Amino acid sequence: MESKKVDIEERLVRFAVMILKLAEKLPDTRAGRYFHDQLIRSGVSPALNYGEAKSAESASDFIHKMKVCLKELRETLISLKIIRGKPLIKSDPILDTCFQECDELVSIFVKSIQTAQLNKNNKMHS
């Protein structure tokens, strides 16, 4: 199970780096600057918060921190949709890669939170 956690952490770090690269490509316009800052905040946050989740003090604390990661990933996904829809960046492979990876990470975190909640409930009823 530890290798899965390492894989998720590594994916989150790679995702954060991709987000930083994407943010640097945004135009120097009011909207570009806004989404530059927004992407950096929400797109890098899951990697940092996941580090906290790994050191959670309880199952409830772990679930809470994982939910924070999920919230930030969903926020990032919506920002990516807006950037694509405007478009603030013309067709660029990094935008598509960020979008796909963020979508996959959202799915992973939804499932991880469900599993953690189920495990917590099973321990409570044992």
Summarize the structure.
This protein has 126 residues and is mainly α.
Describe the structure using short key phrases:
about 0% strand; about 85% helix; de novo design (two linked rop proteins); about 130 residues; single chain; mainly alpha
Shape field:
elongated
CATH homologous superfamily? 23S rRNA-intervening sequence
The largest pleated sheet is described as: none
CATH 2nd-level architecture:
Up-down Bundle
Helix count, DSSP H or I runs of 4 or more residues: 4
CATH topology: de novo design (two linked rop proteins)
DSSP helix fraction: over 70%
Which quaternary structure do these chains form?
A: single chain
What is the chain-wise order of helices and strands? Answer: HHHH
Q: What is the SS-derived class?
A: mainly alpha
CATH hierarchy, class: Mainly Alpha
Give a written overview of the molecule.
There is one protein chain. The protein is mainly alpha-helical. The protein has one domain: 23S rRNA-intervening sequence (de novo design (two linked rop proteins), Up-down Bundle). The protein has four helices and no strands. It has helices spanning 2-25, 30-54, 59-85, 93-124. Helix 1 (2-25) runs antiparallel to helix 2 (30-54) and helix 1 (2-25) packs antiparallel against helix 4 (93-124). The longest helix has 32 residues, at 93-124. The mean pLDDT is 93.
